């Protein structure tokens, strides 16, 4: 009987501390926030592009599709998305994206999920002008 006690403890720990599908999706959303953030260290666009490409390879499938009306972009492919994110320091000296307010819905079979709600971009242009835009995604 005593030899089963550690196994029961491990099973209970896994049930309590294992990540749900929603937790995993939220972790990916945070990874996107971190990948696209613009900091003072982003002076070399080649190095930024390599870092963003590395992150996006973990996050997105190669054939990802997206639409960004403000940038006149509606396209597909991870590399196009990398290019857009890598060039953000040309517009901003610093910028963050907040996806924390998104709701996540997962289908009953656990095969597909949709994140929707308000996303916010906050940043400072090179001129010093501060900008904050929110939109429903």
List the helices and strands and how they pair.
Layout lengths: L4 H13 L3 H16 L8 H15 L5 E4 L4 E4 L1 H9 L5 E7 L4 E4 L6 E4 L1 E8 L4 E7 L1
Antiparallel strand pairs: 1-2, 3-6, 4-5, 6-7
Helix pairs in contact: 2-3, 3-4
Q: How do the SSEs run, as a string of H and E?
A: HHHEEHEEEEE
Q: Strand order across the biggest sheet?
A: 3-6-7
Query: Rg to the nearest angstrom?
Result: 19 Å
- Unreliable parts: 1-18
- Largest sheet data: 3 strands, antiparallel
Mean pLDDT rating:
84
Beta-strand segment tally: 7
- Give the helix/strand class: alpha+beta
Instruction: Classify the beta-strand content into a percent band.
Output: 25-35%
Approximately how much helix is present in the residues? 25-40%
Cα end-to-end separation:
54 Å
CA-based shape: globular
Tally of individual helices: 4
Kindly describe this structure:
With 137 residues, the chain is of the alpha+beta class. It is 39% helix and 28% strand. The protein is built from four helices and seven strands. It has helices at residues 5-17, 21-36, 45-59, 78-86; strands at 65-68, 73-76, 92-98, 103-106, 113-116, 118-125, 130-136. The strands form three sheets. Strands 3-6-7 form a three-stranded antiparallel β-sheet. Helix 2 runs antiparallel to helix 3 (45-59). The chain is globular and about 50 Å long. It starts with a helix and ends with a strand. Residues 1-18 have low confidence and may be disordered.
């Amino acid at each position: 009987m005593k030899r089963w006690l550690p196994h029961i403890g491990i099973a209970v720990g896994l049930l309590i501390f294992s990540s749900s599908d929603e937790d995993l999706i939220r972790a990916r959303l945070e990874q996107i926030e971190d990948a696209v953030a613009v900091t003072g260290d982003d002076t070399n666009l080649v190095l930024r592009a390599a870092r963003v490409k590395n992150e996006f390879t973990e996050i997105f499938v190669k054939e990802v599709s997206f639409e960004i009306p403000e940038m006149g972009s509606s396209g597909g492919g991870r590399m196009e998305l990398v290019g857009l994110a890598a060039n953000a320091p040309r517009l901003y000296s610093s910028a963050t994206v907040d996806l924390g307010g998104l709701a996540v819905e997962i289908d009953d079979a656990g095969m597909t999920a949709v994140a929707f709600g308000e996303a916010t971009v906050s940043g400072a242009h090179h001129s010093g002008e501060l900008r904050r835009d929110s939109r429903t995604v």
